[in-house]
Design brief:
The structure holds two protein chains of two kinds.
Chain A (H helix, E strand, L loop, with lengths): L21 E2 L3 H26 L3 E2 L13 E5 L4 E5 L2 E4 L7 E2 L5 E2 L15 H28 L2 H6 L8 H12 L14 H24 L2 H6 L2 H6 L2 H29 L1 H9 L2 E2 L8
Antiparallel strand pairs in A: 1-8, 2-3, 3-4, 4-5, 6-7
Chain B lengths: L1 H30 L1 H21 L29 H8 L6 E6 L5 E4 H6 L3 E8 L5 E10 H8 L7 E10 L2 E8 H4 L5 E6 L2 E2 L9 E3 L12 E7 L12 H6 L8
Parallel strand pairs in B: 1-10
Antiparallel strand pairs in B: 1-2, 3-4, 4-7, 5-6, 5-10, 7-8, 7-9
Classes of the chains: A alpha+beta, B alpha+beta.
Chain lengths: 284, 254
């Protein structure tokens, strides 16, 4: 097997303890994880407020009120709706029309509890979004360089070819669905589904978020015109930006659910101190 | 079992409570002067970074006639309220003059006919609103560089300010750009749009096109072009109506 090297040499395990802990996450991973926990939260919520300024998405070079959106969140006289293509969903109370903490009805796309700031403020949301974007990008690049240079990406994140066989994948899917998590030595390595999820976020979603974000900047489009060609226009880049944000939100939801199911104290401790306590192997 | 349920409920309400506290915290940070100043620091960083990687003369993408928006929505003021503007409009801007003054060697007062007789540039470009929508239209007008060269900028001039005929409440609209954008080849004072005279809703008689910036920089109803050394004395000092009133970024390249 090519994936036998864990993140940290097993020699660092304390063999004498009854339930030995091992170092599972190194410092750069832990620092970047918690910085991102904050940054991604701010980026998502300030991004939703920016979306509220024009809650319609288009494909192509341009898109405004007289053009046909593929997605729209709007308000009727009494409710709210989400329209995707020709299908309309009633989202009263959640999207399009909802009540603020004071009980007053508001006709905005995303509700107060999902946005930063919580009351309509495009300028304020842009201040948050464009400042925290630097916190996402600069440490993100440093982390990417570190994980490539240290071998973290190759050893721990990129799936080995043998792991990508349909049989192996199906086996992993079944284990996840039954909430059967690896124990002992195997718990020190990511499963192939974890590897695919982390690689997808690190090497596909986050770069796409940054590049589509830059493609919305008129100055960047002058500096790097290929951004427009890459995404098929500014309106398309804005749509892809939104879809990737939704995918990241989905990742976070699954990630948090998995942390809770796999043993939150052990998992969270391993991301704070780095030390993880592998569970005993099951009998049989 | 019931222990599990109540624990789950406790965790749930803790999560909701923590979420509420975080949101309230974010709102307080948004209002806090020091935190806001820290966020504003990112604007300077963004501007420096973008300027570093962008050639001074790098052009905004120009599109073909087939790429144009079928309907280009107007935004902001659609009809200035001032009596003076309405009088000029009624007379077809026949005795209207564009004033060029401030830190210039030769102050100018140019009629619309005169401006339209000068060399013009026509460009089909994308207008990106800060709100997120964009529209593609064709603009024809006098390169700002021609005007500034004719007036002769003084050494001390750092910014070009555009004073407009429209106002929001009592605050007149104005905008400002620095000399890098002022002398950019695509920066024009447009008098034509989509092959016709510039409509009132889009800023007649003249509107600024500064193509590497968001829409609110593209001042409509431009009456006066002023060269200044500092933005401090104008409006509330932040360089534009939206910058003063809503804290939009002065650097609107992103």
């Amino acid at each position: 097997m090519a994936n036998t090297a864990p993140d940290i040499p097993a020699a660092e395990a304390a063999p004498q303890e009854r339930h030995p802990t091992v170092l599972r996450h190194r410092l750069p991973t832990r620092l970047w994880h918690w910085l991102n926990a904050l940054t991604v939260f701010v980026m998502l919520m300030s991004g939703l407020m920016i979306f509220n300024a024009h809650p319609r998405l288009y494909w192509g070079q341009y898109g405004a009120n007289f053009d046909r959106p593929w997605l729209e969140i709007g308000a009727t006289a009494t409710g709210g709706f989400l329209q995707v293509g020709d299908r309309q969903f009633d989202t009263s109370g959640w999207l399009g029309r909802w009540k603020d903490p004071g009980g007053r009805e508001r006709a905005r796309a995303f509700p107060w509890w999902a946005t930063i700031p919580s009351t309509y403020d495009l300028a304020g949301a842009r201040r948050w979004h464009l400042a925290f974007a630097w916190l996402l990008v600069v440490p993100g690049l440093l982390y990417a360089v570190w994980s490539l240079a240290s071998g973290h990406a190759r050893r721990d994140l990129v799936p080995a070819r043998s792991e990508l066989s349909p049989r192996q994948l199906w086996h992993d899917v079944k284990d996840h669905a039954r909430l059967r998590f690896p124990s002992g030595e195997a718990a020190l390595r990511y499963t192939v589904l974890q590897k695919l999820a982390y690689c997808g976020v690190l090497f596909i979603l986050l770069p796409l978020m940054v590049l589509t974000g830059l493609a919305m900047s008129p100055a960047m489009d002058a500096a790097w015109p290929w951004l427009l060609d890459l995404f098929g226009g500014r309106a398309s880049a804005r749509s892809i930006h939104f879809l990737c944000a939704a995918a990241i939100l989905l990742f976070i939801a699954v990630h948090l659910a998995m942390v809770l199911l796999a043993g939150p104290i052990n998992e969270i401790r391993s991301m704070i101190t780095g030390r993880f306590r592998p569970r005993r192997g099951r009998a049989g | 079992m019931s222990g599990d349920v109540s624990r789950r409920r406790l965790i749930g309400s803790l999560a909701v409570g923590a979420g509420g506290l975080l949101l309230a915290g974010c709102d307080r940070l948004t209002r806090s002067g020091d935190f806001r100043d820290a966020l504003r620091g990112a604007e300077r960083l963004t501007m420096r970074a973008q300027r570093l990687i962008t050639d001074r003369g790098a052009l905004a993408r120009e599109y073909g006639p087939a790429d144009m928006s079928p309907i280009f929505r107007p935004n902001g003021t659609r009809m200035p309220a001032s009596a003076e503007y309405r009088r000029h409009l009624a007379r077809g801007f026949g005795d209207w003059r564009l004033i060029v003054d401030g830190l210039v060697a030769r102050p100018l007062a140019l009629s619309l006919d005169r401006i339209r007789g000068l060399p013009a540039r026509t460009q089909i470009t994308r207008h990106d609103c800060v709100e997120g929508w964009s529209a593609i239209g064709q603009w024809t007008g006098m390169p700002l560089k021609l005007l500034l060269d004719a007036a002769g900028l003084r050494q001390a001039a750092r910014y070009i300010v555009f004073h407009c005929a429209d106002s929001f409440g009592t605050a007149p609209y104005y905008e400002s750009i620095d000399l890098i954008d002022a002398f950019h080849p695509q920066t024009i004072l447009a008098w034509g749009m989509n092959g016709r005279m510039l409509p009132v809703a889009h800023g007649a008689p003249l509107r600024l096109r500064v193509e590497r910036m968001l829409g609110y920089k593209h001042a409509k109803y431009v009456m006066r072009v002023e060269a200044v050394a500092s933005l401090a004395g104008i409006g509330r000092g932040k360089g534009g109506y939206w910058e003063d009133s809503h804290d939009y970024e002065w650097y609107a390249g992103i």
